[in-house]
User: Fold this.
Amino acid sequence: MVNIKHSVHTKIWIEDENGETVLGAGQLEILNVINDKGSISAAARAMNMGYRSMWGKLKKIEKRIGKPLLIRKKGGASGGNSILTFEAKIMVDKFKQLQHEISKSAEKIFKEKSLF
Assistant:
């Protein structure tokens, strides 16, 4: 008999009371790339996404959580920039912790259940 190692994977997202996604992998990636690149336009280019599309996604998240995610400085001669608010950084960190804890718990349960 062949001994094949299996693992379990999880995917989580947060929804509002209307079932609309507030935060998940896609939203988290957008926030991380904006944080890394320093602007919405640079993040949109890096993700091969239109600026308006990214802007729309950000506005949806902000509306659903009731808080701004970014501190924005409009462009000019030196260009604009965007950085995550303190609250957004905490939200991103807590979501990553939640993902990690759920993943570890799922793996533990999976091993205990010995499905294969």
User: Anything to note?
Assistant: The CA atoms of residues 5 and 116 lie 9 Å apart.
